[in-house]
Amino acid sequence: MAKQLEFHNTPNYLTLLRILFVPGVVACMAVGGLWWDFAAAALFGLASFTDYLDGYYARKLKQETVYGKLMDPLADKFLVICSLIMLQSLGRIHPMVVMLLVCRELTITGLRALASAEGVIVAASQGGKWKTATQMSAIPCLMLKDFSEQFLHGFPLFQIGIWLTYISIALSLWSAKDYMVEFFKGLKVTHALRLERNREKRRMKKQRKLAKKAKLGI
Q: How far apart are CA 131 and CA 64, in angstroms?
């Protein structure tokens, strides 16, 4: 249990580093220009790589902690949502796309919080993992719109980013459905077990009362 409450380890430092990358990405995009866009995409790519590294080291070194479980999903959401909002402000992505993706993240975050309160374990779905991968690939492509037009001689990097974004929306909605189905299935099982335990407690209590009466000769 002590290790679960330990903060000072490599995975947590990597997650914290990913959070610290977010203001840098936002600042580069706010300044604008070809090379600042490139810097934003590079920082985003490095931050995304830390997402892989912290999970890898947490499993390899057996350093999964409460802090990591809290910070890791938050770091991903900070990075993606802030980048999407900046891209929308630059006119590179439709506001409806940002609304859908942000609402999806809020829904799943609330669902996970409710699941935790109810004692239901909702495992990460394969669709959710693919959603994250497509988002992490799409966002740098959208950041490099002007850069690709200037230096990549017509290579459709921005269009690739748009299509990856649409794919990520589809995967987001599909994985949200998976999470909700998994949650309600787990909720039914948890409630059934809870009712069974309550019935068993009442039965045992009744048996103790009867035994007590028999002992007293009542």
A: 23
Global confidence as pTM? 0.81
Q: How far out from the chain centre does Cα 33 lie?
A: 30
Residue 88 CB-density burial (10 A; 0-12 exposed, 13-18 middle, 19+ buried): middle
Average pLDDT, the chain: 84
Other Cβ atoms less than 10 A from the Cβ of 14: the count is: 24
Neighbour-count burial for 145-172, b at 16+ CB within 10 Å, e otherwise = bbbbeeeeeeeebbeebbebbebbbebb
DSSP 3-state of 65: coil
CA distance linking residue 129 with residue 172, whole number of Å: 10
pLDDT of 139 reads 95
**Residues shown for the chain:** 218
Residue that the structure tokens 């938050």 belong to: 74
